[in-house]
Design a protein that fits this description.
The chain has one domain: Arc Repressor Mutant, subunit A (Orthogonal Bundle), CATH 1.10.10.10. It has 84 residues and is α+β, with helices and mostly antiparallel strands. The chain has a 3-stranded antiparallel beta sheet. The protein is globular. The protein has 5 helices and 3 strands; from the N terminus they run H-H-E-H-H-E-E-H. Keywords: DNA-binding, Transcription, Transcription regulation.
Length: 84
């Protein structure tokens, strides 16, 4: 759970999650939305993958990233259990 909160604690990573809510994208498509280096985008993607917020799949020359909604459902379920 700590890696999940760490991943969501960064504005750029939250923006990447928002982009992936709309559709699956490769790293270049994600990078086009930001004014930061491609290595920085890769670093953010790695943190999101470590937190299981996104998944990746090799498609031809590119790696396509998609949102892992099940981890978000788990987080929401946990948060709802805190309310009593």
């Amino acid at each position: 759970m700590n890696s999940l909160f760490k991943a969501l604690n960064d504005e750029t990573r939250r923006q990447i999650v928002d982009l992936l809510k709309q559709k699956d994208l490769n790293a270049g498509e994600i990078a086009a939305h930001f004014n930061i280096s491609k290595p920085s985008i890769s670093h953010h993607l790695d943190i999101l993958k470590q937190a299981d917020l996104i998944t990746s799949e090799k498609k031809g020359q590119f790696v396509e990233y998609s949102l892992n909604t099940s981890i978000l459902e788990d987080l929401l379920t946990w948060i709802l259990t805190l309310k009593k």
